[in-house]
Design a protein that fits this description.
The protein is α+β, with helices and mostly antiparallel strands and 246 residues long. It contains six helices and eleven strands.
């Protein structure tokens, strides 16, 4: 398994409110996550930082339990970890007035041998990429995605919608949160990409696939993805984390 992550401020923001984390990635086991923070004076960077740090701490605390019970209680444990991270961010926003209203997306991939488990809140995404194609593994928690599901707008129309950035779900903005948990099989040669919307708002899925497949390494792929987003004037921070199943 080869892993590389990188984050960049983008072309329009003054500071980077994205965070990412890589843990373990050895002997077929790993934890990888990206978070895109929002709100307040320092709220965005605090929220995303808290999310990944809480994820790391809780993962280490529950790791043995998680591995022993997989896949049976995998969903329960991931949901529990997300709930606790949500509670921490929520409490911090209540204690510190300058952080009021802060929140963050969080997309976390737990890899156990050739099994992938994803916990997800917000509009950061997880993709599976192989020669045959690219598949989005998460569903955006956005107002425009809801409109698409309700067939009030067509796929593609969300790109120019005035409320395209409005989240319907985020970590830390409420006392409780609903968490999506997904299970996927993997095979040798697959790539798993986690990324924030600074990437997906500027580069199409097909372009992402080609950049990943034609790169010589995960590091080169991540560099090219971020470079491509910046060339197109990425309006947000850009974070990409790529896992290669070697």
């Amino acid at each position: 398994m080869l892993v590389k992550g990188k984050t960049d401020v983008g072309q329009e923001r003054q500071k980077n409110e994205d965070s990412f984390i890589i843990i373990d990635h050895d002997k077929g086991i790993g934890l990888f996550a990206v978070a895109d923070g929002m709100g307040g004076h320092r709220g965005g960077e605090v929220a995303s930082g808290l999310a990944v740090e809480m994820l790391k701490d809780l993962y280490h605390k529950h790791k043995d339990e998680f591995l022993e019970s997989f896949p049976g209680r995998g969903k329960d444990l991931i949901t529990k970890i997300f709930f606790q991270a949500n509670e921490k961010i929520w409490q911090e926003s209540l204690i510190k007035p300058e952080l009021e209203g802060m929140g963050t997306t969080l997309t976390a991939a737990f890899l156990i041998n050739e099994h992938l488990v994803i916990g997800h809140v917000g509009d950061s995404r997880a993709y599976k990429i192989r020669a045959e194609g690219i598949w989005q593994l998460t569903e955006d928690h956005t107002y425009v995605q809801r409109l698409i599901k309700e067939k009030k707008i067509l796929p593609g129309e969300e790109e120019n919608h005035p409320q395209r950035n409005l989240l319907t779900r985020a970590l830390g903005t409420n006392k409780t949160v609903e968490v999506d948990v997904y299970f996927y099989p993997l095979k040798k040669g697959d790539f798993i990409l986690l990324c924030t919307d600074g990437l997906t708002r500027t580069i199409s899925d097909e372009e992402i696939k080609n950049l990943v497949l034609f790169a010589n390494s995960p590091g080169e792929a991540v560099d090219e993805l971020i470079k491509g987003a910046n060339k197109r004037g990425s309006p947000d921070n850009v974070t990409a984390l790529l896992v290669s199943m070697t």
